[in-house]
Amino acid sequence: MIVSPAVIALMLGSAAVGLLALYASAWGVRILRHWDLRSGSESQLQLEKRTYLVSTLMAWAFAFQVGSLFLFIFTAEDLHRLFVGAMCAAGTLNVNEFGYPTILLKVGNALLAGIWLIVNYTDNRASDYPLIRKKYAFLLVITPLLLAEAVLQGAYFAGLKANVITSCCGSLFGAEAQGPVSSLVGLPAGPMRAALIASLSITFASGLLFRSGRVRAGGLFSVSSLAAFFISIAALVSYISPYIYELPTHHCPFCILQREYSYIGYFFYASLLGGAIPGAAVGVLLPFRGIGCLQGVLPPVLRRLTFASLFLYFLFSLLVVYSISFSALIVEMD
Amino acid sequence: MSLIVLNGITKIFNRGRPDEFTALSDVSLEIEPRGLAVFRGPSGSGKTTLLSIVGCMAKPSAGRVLVKGREVTSLPDRFLTDIRRHTFGFIFQQLHLVRGISALENVILPAYPSGEGLASLRERGVRLLDLLGLAHRADTNVEWLSGGEAQRVAIARALINEPAIVIADEPTAHLDTKLSLDFMAAMERLKAEGKTILFASHDPLVYESTMVDRVLEMRDGRIVAERRAS
Amino acid sequence: MNWIDKQRNIVDFALSSLLRRWRKNLALLCVYTFVVFIVASVVFFAEALKRDACLVLEGAPDVVVQRLIAGRHDLISSGHMEKLARITGVSDVKGRLWAYYFEPSVGANYTMVVTEEAAGRPGTVAIGAGVSRTLLAGQGDLIAFRGHDGAYVSLEVARVFPSSSELVSADLVEISEEDFRALFGLPEGIYTDLTLRVRNPKETVVVADKIRRLLPDTRPILREEILRTYEALFDWRGGIVLAIFAGAALAFIIFAWDKATSLTLEERREIGILKAVGWETSEVIVMKSWEGIVISLTAFLLGLVLAYVHVFFTSGTLFEPVLKGWAVLYPRFQPVPFIDPYQVATLFFLTVVPYTVATVIPSWGAATIDPDTIMRQ
Ligand SMILES: Nc1ncnc2c1ncn2[C@@H]1O[C@H](COP(=O)(O)OP(=O)(O)OP(=O)(O)O)[C@@H](O)[C@H]1O
Ligand SMILES: [Mg+2]
């Protein structure tokens, strides 16, 4: 167990998010069971008031979730000095088997909580809560994941012991490494670049089509924006990061977060997360466009979401182009 | 078309508990645009309750309310509030000005969430106060205002969102005769501008005034009689 | 933009509402600031100690080789040096001389070391500020040391180390090799331990392994290992102190909860008025959130600045007894000021998150007052 202030802060943050979500879910269950908009009964009025509480709780939970994701990476970066062989967060996370699952769950939960807030926002704009049951059922799915994240994170920190020998990015993300994480590295640069360009182009094209009124393009846009998220991360590992490190063999997704690389990693990941959340939300909301009250509400919301997603992916693309073109490294593509 | 339609409105407080109380039972009513209507009746007859339901401040236990033809009883709170703040202006018996801020700030308070810039809000607020002859007191803290001045600040506040309907509950209960007459004169101007005005009052000075178009008599949560000016 | 103007209006009202109840809010602000101050002081102080220690170790040799006899540290002979120098990747093998010296008159233990600077000036010593303080000896004074044979050796103080490095140099006495050997009766060719450098830092572990096999009676100590132990130790101490102060934080949460739930009648009336004149529940919640954000950020910044001053300009007066453990040669620690986004982010999480969680439900409760209640007052 390592007890540094940041570890305490993270545990506290996770406990807070878990508590908020648990409390929100308790009301979610009651709303699922007793909701009846037509009734003017006292209990219905009380439930309606509770929806405000749940929205507020989840908004804060999301804010803390995103904050704790970055603080977690920051902490993993900082703790690397405690472990033999760890040069950055990649090594710290590898110290025990809970490290990588925790961070994956953190990213997933941030995505889900963001989507929930967007669904909630949309639902509140329609005059008869058309998505109320769906969104509270969705909430009941997210809450256990948030709790699981808190538990995994606790297990991870509890299992940390200084001086443990771990392997770091050099071997984890090295060319000859084995295992699921490192298989990303093995992806050849040429095809990876093609996949990245393809997924981003499809996202941009379908997004622009969707915004100009082709409803059909919306589904494609949503799927491709989510795919672009994962492909971009894979591309960061396999193809983009060597340009940033100016070393053809270094593929770490975490070292780019360090000061030496002017914290550029935070911009990469923030723009990706910001692009993926609204993009995925478009896909979640699209099937409901036929529902009575949403007909008027949904189109402007979808347009704005699409714009936000496209804008952030555009920023991401600029960052990628910038990193590659200003790099001293020149890679032969075959 | 009627501005507001009430259809079989019943309001029961504390339903299902021993102290259950039916404040309104099966009230139906139509209110046309323009004109001044007064609800009168003994204490406890349900005037305030009825006004709060008409003004979309509270929901009825049963029955329907239509505002400008739109059914509002089953609307979520945020939509109801939106309709309320663009349709109704309220003047309360106790005025209920926010202490510690200026008269002008009190006037523009209801318009804060509209997203109108503070500068243009202030301008409109000053114009309203000016109409009521109170422009020189705009920056005075409301605690320092006299009863009549405070009353006029409350009127200006009710008008800042340019509502179609002004609702006042016992507006003259705390005023002497002169101030009551001033108040009625201000309401007369509003009526001339085409606003609809609803009062609850048992002050003869109000319901016997010549500008009243309609008096609705209430008793035990029902409207028992109605008199229209010819 | 409409949305921005709306937020600006709401913030405007939130600020005026905070100022109108300045007594209550000032009390809250003071307690909040105090908690941030305490927590931030702990975090800054622990980090400053850690940095200081790491800074000193930066210059330390990569590997130190000590000879063990029956599990205890023993002197090592120059014969080992040649064997070490033959290991591939190893360079710069040197013998080190250092010792502990107990001074009965003040009851303190000094660390005596032979350094290259001191080697050129036999008959003199350079001493740490702690030694200087306990012996009341300054530059130019003579200090008498009792040798292994009971005879006293007097040495002149050539220099006192600056107090900026006090944490590690407080008890230090730098001495020349001749004087050292004379004082402790050590023959030539014998050293306290050996140091060496490893050309490729990634090979230190491999080299250490070779040393263990080649010289079975020795143990290699890696600089990295010491660094790690230090880090873990300081982090751990900082964590313990934080855990103690978690009690303070808890009291604060209860206080915040109480402040937020016990809305005064006046406040309830005000929120009732807002709702009655057309504010919507979520707008009141936003207004309350802005109030919380303003209070939090103010307290956070104030607490941070106060802690910064406390740790870096008054040397953390309040914590020295807890975080440092030397008795007589108590160092006056002068930490180097730093500000690190990581520490700030951590502190933000430690203080603002609990406050927000404690106040979110009460503000919601206040925001859902029914608008028609105001008609009956
Ligand atoms: N929240 C409540 N819970 C229980 N009973 C209530 C509540 N609000 C009002 N009542 C009751 O409903 C009845 C009608 O109240 P209302 O305020 O509408 O009367 P009113 O006609 O305005 O009387 P007044 O002339 O005294 O103002 C009263 O008997 C009152 O006690
Ligand atoms: Mg009344």
**Sheet with most strands: strand arrangement of chain C:** 5-6-10-7-9-8
Largest sheet of chain A: none
**How much strand content do the residues of chain A show?**
under 5%
Number of strands of chain A: 0
Helix content of chain A: over 70%
The largest contact between protein chains, plus residue counts on each side, is: A-C, 35 and 41 residues
Helix percentage range of chain C: 55-70%
Overall pLDDT of chain A: 86
Over all CA atoms, what is the radius of gyration of chain A? Answer: 22 Å
SS element count, helices of chain A: 11
Q: Strand percentage of chain C, roughly?
A: 15-25%
Q: What's the N-to-C terminus distance of chain C? A: 37 Å
Overall SS class of chain C? alpha+beta
**Unique ligands:** adenosine-5'-triphosphate, magnesium ion
Short description, anyone?
The complex is a heterotrimer of chains A (334), B (230) and C (377). With 334 residues, chain A is mainly alpha-helical.
Description:
The complex is a heterotrimer of chains A (334), B (230) and C (377). Helices cover 72% and strands 0% of the residues of chain A. Chain A has helices spanning 5-34, 42-79, 89-93, 99-125, 132-158, 169-172, 183-186, 189-211, 216-245, 264-285, 294-325. In chain A, 48% of the residues are buried. The model of chain A has no long low-confidence stretch (mean pLDDT 86). By secondary structure, chain B is an alpha/beta fold. Chain B has a single domain (33-56, 76-228), classed as Rossmann fold (3-Layer(aba) Sandwich). In chain B, 32% of the residues lie in helices and 27% in strands. The longest helix of chain B is centred in the last third of the chain and has 17 residues, at 177-193. Chain C has 377 residues and is an alpha+beta fold. Chain C folds into two domains: 2-56 and 232-375, no CATH class; 62-221, no CATH class. Chain C has 13 helices and 13 strands. Chain C has helices at 2-20, 22-58, 79-85, 116-119, 129-135, 166-169, 177-184, 204-214, 223-261, 265-276, 281-313, 320-323, 341-367; strands at residues 63-69, 72-74, 76-77, 90-96, 98-103, 108-114, 124-127, 142-146, 152-160, 172-175, 190-191, 193-198, 218-222. The radius of gyration of chain C is 31 Å and the shape is elongated. Chains in contact: A-B, A-C, B-C. The A-C interface holds A 2-10, 12-13, 16, 19-20, 49, 52-53, 55-57, 60, 64, 67-68, 70-71, 74-75, 78, 81-84, 162-163 and C 39, 42-43, 46, 205, 224-225, 227-229, 231-232, 235-236, 238-240, 242-243, 246, 281-282, 285, 289, 342-343, 345-350, 353-354, 356-357, 360-361, 364, 367-368. Residues 13-14, 21, 23, 41, 43-49 of chain B line the site of adenosine-5'-triphosphate.
